[in-house]
Write a structure and sequence with these properties.
Length: 69
């Protein structure tokens, strides 16, 4: 599902009517900050998941070596 030019224009007009011209830059700034924080949190969770996976793999390898002896 993609938005066409008409739908995008209609959404922009509704936003302009609801919030007025002065509040739109504030809203855009807030959305930008929220998007940045979301990406930062997502990267942090991905890094933690990778670290956890690496730790589990190392523990499994150590356990495997231990059981071979």
């Amino acid at each position: 599902m993609s938005l066409g030019l008409t739908e995008i224009a209609l959404i922009l007009v509704v936003i302009l009517i609801l919030f007025g011209g002065k509040r739109i830059p504030e809203l855009a700034k807030a959305l930008g900050k929220a998007q940045y924080e979301y990406r930062k949190a997502k990267e942090m969770l991905q890094n933690e998941a990778k670290d956890l996976k690496d730790t589990v793999e190392k523990a499994a390898e150590a356990e495997e070596k231990k059981s071979e002896k």
